[in-house]
Amino acid sequence: MKEKFNYFLTNNKLVFLFFIVLVFLFYRTLFQSYFEADEWYAFTLNLPLTHDPWGFLKVLIKYSTIDAPSLAQLQHIVPLAEEIFFLNALFFGTNFVPYAFISLSLHALNSFLVFMLIKLLISRRPIFAFLGGLFFALSPVQMHAVTWAATYQTSVLPVTLSLLSIIFFMLAYLRNKKKFIYISVLFLFLALSTKETSIILFIILPIIAFFEKRTFPSSFLVKIFVASLIVYLVFRFLLPGIYSLSSLKTQQAKVSDTHTVVSRDLSIYTNLPREVLFRAITFPVRMIGTSFLPRQTVFSIVQFITPIVSPVDPGGNTIGQLAFLYGSGNFVIIYLVSLAVIFFCLSSIIRFIKRKQISEAKPIVVGLAIIILSAFPLVAIIFSFPRWGYDFYFDSRYYYGPSIGAAIIFPFLIFGIGEFVSKNFYIRKTSTVVLIAFIFWLINNIYVFNLGLKEFTQNYRPDARVVVRQLKEYLPKLPPKTVFYFETDGKSALGPRLPFFTSVPQALTVVYYDVSPLPDSFFDKPLFLGNPEGYQYADGRGFGFYTSKKELAEDLSSGLFSGENIHSFYYYAEKVKLKNTTWEIRGEMENFLKTEK
């Protein structure tokens, strides 16, 4: 049995096949999910370009030059990712299945690449590589990066390219071939063109080079990294800045604090440098602990210790206890775990260096560096959204990159725990303790994994898919003038609205684009000028969306459209069912018009 397992670990093809089966098996419910939020807006930008013979080129120009200043201030400049989304819209449209398939395929590939990376870092222990790949494949912490399938090009793909960059860089030393350095730099630029957080490779790769033999001259490596960094910084910051100045777009409207996470008012901080420094210290520490411990596990621990740490007498005030349970207690656990991992890593590194086992210290240094450095780009978010970053955990998608580092360290942690327990409890077989520790981790991990997967793929996303299908059964195509009116029972977790995490009218213009596309003028600016409901007419086509009978009646009486243009539905949230109420609402509107006359 042991020989067969060792053969499996040395057969890369079998390991790759294993990760493909594993990922598609555990993530199989993703195919029942649907689009989420940001991609709906991206569809409105890209779908009109799919009918333009120069659409591919226009996307590159638009997101690298014309819109670069605004993107530099608020979002991203990632031309390759934008081109990929355009191609997805061109070939797949709003068919969710291909997006899910690509996202899962890339995640399976990434799990295998993590396996290969750890194998290169510590070739004498293939079991470490397997455990690390397994940790990465089934980590519930970074799950949303995979399940938000339509945005794989800015979450999953950048990690694929980053891993390839690191692996080829290591192969250059292993095979003493300079061409692999150039291939590594190529993948570095491809990674940067899909997500700016890949900039940490400019530090990770030199760290790896530091541990390797001096195969290549230091001057060569310095030149290639400095030149690459300058080229990227010019593209990412200097050119957008020059364009911004030449276009007189440097002045921004004064913003006020909305007291929400999307507030952009920096004046809320009386000492901004101090806040930036605070985040630069705490974000990496939090990133370490939260990369290993899922939020559900943290909360379960806090639930267990709360009665002990913050006891309350019968009939007493529970405010302090609740504050610990839902607030400070979570931070306590996260920081304790973070500090424990940091202590373990540093002590292990020092121990290996003292023993002159540099090859053992190298993977821990690289893993810890990946986690810590991945947190620093998040500090810069303060300049766009000052109130972001105060939750216990970061956005799940931001953990996909750091999970590489966690996967590298994870096998060392498991074996470290096994050795510690064996030594202190006088257990002869350390392997047995390691196996038990791994089983405990696996059981908890799969439990939390399934909870997260249900939340991200089954709770609300399928509802939107069902609503779209029912709506198209009632109304297969949009007539020249189409006015939607929706009522709900208000029992949805999203409130009295349809189950979309975005503008509902915007989503409706997208889902009908394949059979009856609206004119491009509907997509070159916010629908209804940013209002949640209204009516828009251009180029012989009209589209309206209402949830208020008053607004519907007022626009009807003004002559913007007629009663026969109205299509009305009532949404039962618990049953996820649309009821066609068109004739009832049309009758009400006709009576309203008669009464008004």
Automatic annotation (TrEMBL):
Transmembrane portions of the chain: 12-31, 96-118, 127-150, 156-174, 181-208, 220-239, 332-353, 365-386, 398-421, 433-453
Keywords recorded for this protein, A-Z: Membrane, Transmembrane, Transmembrane helix
Name recorded for this polypeptide: Glycosyltransferase RgtA/B/C/D-like domain-containing protein
Taxonomic placement: Bacteria, Candidatus Roizmaniibacteriota
